[in-house]
Write a structure and sequence with these properties.
Two copies of one chain form a homodimer. By secondary structure, the first copy, chain A, is of the alpha+beta class. Chain A has helices at about 70-80, 150-165, 170-175, 180-190, 200-210, 235, and strands spanning about 20-35, 40-45, 55, 60, 80, 85-95, 110-120, 125, 135-140, 180, 210-220, 225-230. Chain A folds into two domains: about 20-165, Nucleoside Triphosphate Pyrophosphohydrolase (Alpha-Beta Complex), CATH 3.90.79.10; about 175-240, Arc Repressor Mutant, subunit A (Orthogonal Bundle). Helix content of chain A is about 25%, strand content about 30%. Chain A binds a DNA duplex through helix 5.
DNA sequence: ACAAAAGTGTTTTTTATACACCCATGC
DNA sequence: GCATGGGTGTATAAAAAACACTTTTGT
């Protein structure tokens, strides 16, 4: 984890042999079920040792000729069919003994996990259940004990998601092409919690920024006045790139 | 790098063998020369292939039994003697062919670099020049072509430093125990550039936050009114932890 | 006395926050 | 007609930005 303070230590392991690594990629894949206002994370049931029959983040070991990012996309492609997604690298967990396989026969081999963080559109995401495999969306509030240090990775990913939402337009990667301002607001509430902003202020702030265009199309969801559908305008957003834009 | 968009690709390298990795740790070590208002980065001259006689970020390969972070601290200890520092993980670069050694004899072995970001106190940092080794502080504005993808890593580290400075108290890890408000201001200017805030506003904002205590001690630097020395008060800062505190 | 650096205060503009209220629809 | 969600506006408070001014030193 970033931000801690160990002491400088120059023990004389100067002539220690180099470690050999297998490198795994684990994805923290989030989606938001706007209908039920739940933030979800994708978990898979492990089908081999170690941690057989434990839930875990979907992951894979990196193959020859494959980049880390390729591996992250491969996991996605194997578990889920999705059109739109946001993906970025999260953190690298690599202490010795984080994987029990390091203990056993294959002496000296270390397992390192490069984690990626993804956000997908819940409605369009289609899970791929290969034969016997368990795969499911879990509410982040109800994740069970996971394999390896995956609970820790998930916590870290959740923190990143909250930050991302505040200062970057990831939300639009995960909303439908056209959405109501309330859809957007619900997404923020679901991820960030109730107390971040009043709806009308949220609305005013976002519209003033000028990168949401009103399509004029109205949708009615049950009772109440029909809402306008808006569209994210990438060109209008361009000037805000890399600026400390604040959404909340 | 985070934030890009490749396409999902599920090529059938399903039966490809796993890659074997050596894992390197490379540190982007910054310091600020407040006397000359320069942001510096520590570079070392490589003494072996590949890229012999090129400048590079100080790095090492991870040894058996050593965690990533241990390796990062080991690099620090080998290159520099320093009391106070801030260190956190930056990013993991791991595409195939980023290291030319992957081409040659040792077929199949990949080199992956986990980069760390460090900030040290320039005045107290003592460089360790082992025998023939070149080691030097470079102004980030004048770094030469570096080995591997180290220029890219440096750019990424610089961006992180700027962000960190804006919303976290890293500056105090790198200033002397007692400092004038102008010292602090110069540090911000040096890292962030000229146009972020006027001195008196910067001053007022920071003092209002209440975690800088005036020691009463005055120092005179040439002409002009003597300045008060301030001290960072960690207890008074505690309530701001994890809050979206903004310094700039 | 005067320049230089430190430190204080004031004015203006912008942004955040908390609401009150009007609008259009389903039932 | 009234409950429901959509949408607009206003009044107050707080923060950011610009800049004028005072204080204390060295020379």
């Amino acid at each position: 984890m970033p931000g801690h303070n160990s002491k400088l230590s120059a023990r004389s392991l100067n002539q220690q042999p180099l470690a050999d690594f297998k490198v795994g990629v684990d994805n923290v894949i989030f989606s938001v079920d706007t209908a039920q206002n739940r933030l979800l994370v994708l978990l898979v049931m492990r089908q081999q040792e170690p941690f057989i029959n434990s839930w875990s983040l979907p992951g894979t070991l990196v193959r020859q000729g494959e980049s880390l990012e390729d591996a992250a996309y491969r996991i996605m492609a194997e578990k889920i069919r999705v059109e739109n997604l946001y993906l970025e690298q999260l953190y690298t967990f690599g202490g010795p003994l984080r994987d029990p396989r390091e203990d056993s026969t294959s002496f000296g081999v270390r397992y390192l996990s490069v984690s990626y963080f993804a956000l997908v559109r819940f409605e369009e995401a289609e899970l791929i259940a290969d034969k016997v495999a368990g795969i499911a969306w879990y509410s982040v509030k109800q994740v069970p004990q996971l394999a390896f240090d995956h609970n820790e990775i998930l916590t870290y990913g959740h923190r990143r998601l909250k930050n991302k939402l505040e200062y970057s337009p990831v939300a639009f990667d995960v909303l439908p092409e056209m959405f109501t301002l309330n859809d957007l607001y619900q997404l923020y509430i679901t991820v960030l919690g109730e107390n971040f902003s009043d709806y009308s202020n949220f609305r005013a702030r976002l519209l003033k920024l000028g990168f949401l265009s009103d399509t004029g199309i109205k949708v009615s969801r049950g009772a109440g006045r029909p809402a306008s559908l808006y569209r994210f305008n990438a060109e209008a957003f361009a000037p805000f790139k890399d600026k400390p834009l604040v959404f909340i």
